Fold:
Amino acid sequence: MRPSLARSKRGFTLIELLVVIAIIAILIGLLLPAVQKVREAAARMSSQNNLKQIGIAAHSYHDTIGRIASNGVNTANRPDWCWAYQYLPFIEQDNMKRLGDAGTPPGGVPVKTYLIPARGRGGFSTAGANSPGFNGPFTDYKINWTGFFNVSNNNPNRPTMAQVTSGKGTSNVLYVGEGFLDRREYNRNHSSNWEEVIYSGGYGGTGRGSTVLVQDDQSGQGDKWGSPHNVCHFVFLDGSVRGVNYRFSGSANFDSALRPLDTRVLNLD
Structure:
């Protein structure tokens, strides 16, 4: 009778397992920053696309109404409400606009086009509704009220594009940009303190007028432009989207761009 031959089975030693784990950890450590950069670039591009849609909406509104939308004024009249409310039909939010005009604007519903993706916020108010008393969507993008004033969107004297850009060109006029938000407010669900909803007019929650450019931090809410990105993006009146470097905060050049004047001296990308 032949003796049976035992099959030898060899597994990983503890040292080999530790080496494999160490290699995997190193690879993950190298990969994570690259993944994070890709995610940040995608979020930034998405915000630029939102501003591009706002620019297209501005032109469509102008073609329909014959005037440029302003930041509105604080009344219960729907035509007085801000640019973001007026543009709803032009960003595929017709139903929200119809319900608002009928006196029952929906609350608890965000408008994706009006939100900077990198902030990851809920995007609507459920408490502390500002006058005229409706909770609703926030907008991370603010109109330049230095050039496009806090007047009713029913005002027949609102400017046309030709009047605003006379001698300057639409590509030199800042219209809507990313508004600063304190990082502690990313989960905000109440309407107040420079973050009022679009069911209103004349508020800082839908407009900005200062020359301050600040990347999102924890310095408190206020009249500031800014974003989570390494530049602050704006859509110009010609529909182009460009970034303004934070080093232009408070500068005469940025002030000229908001008034609006020639912005070719700005560091745009």
Remarks:
- The chain has five helices and five strands.
- The longest strand covers residues 174-178.
- The radius of gyration is 25 Å.
